[in-house]
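May I ask for a sample protein chain and its fold as tokens?
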Amino acid sequence: MGALGAALARMAGQRVYFDTNVFIYFLDQGALFNMVAPLLAACVEGRMTGCTGDAAVAETMVMPYRHNNTAKIAQFKAFFGLQGFLTLHAHTAQTFDLAAQLAGTQGMRLMDALHFATAIESSCRFLVTNDAGIKSSDEIEVIYVKALQA
């Protein structure tokens, strides 16, 4: 079955939060595209519920804006505007407070803590990332993209 297949099986029927790097790998179709495409396809097919936060969208848009790449800006905006495969969550004051607590007590970078806090508040069971600074907890299992290659 492999690591990717096993992860897909564990995440089936669950709410799954996707960190920024998942979208960058997918939209740029880089080296890890083949690891993240099946995860997003599972969301499109309704095998899991995909979630992310406004911060992930903003982080994903940084490089297209930095390079004034209007084609990528339009492509990325269209992707995040698609209906039915990804639930986009706003970050509330409560989310930021939880993120600050996580950053302060767990040693996470604030942006990583914001993703983790948003995943918690979105009732996600899994968080998919490639950031080693984000660790599993009793509430959320972290799936590292690089581990899916095994």
Remarks:
- The first strand starts at residue 15 and ends at 18.
- The beta strands are 15-18, 49-53, 86-89, 126-129, 141-144.
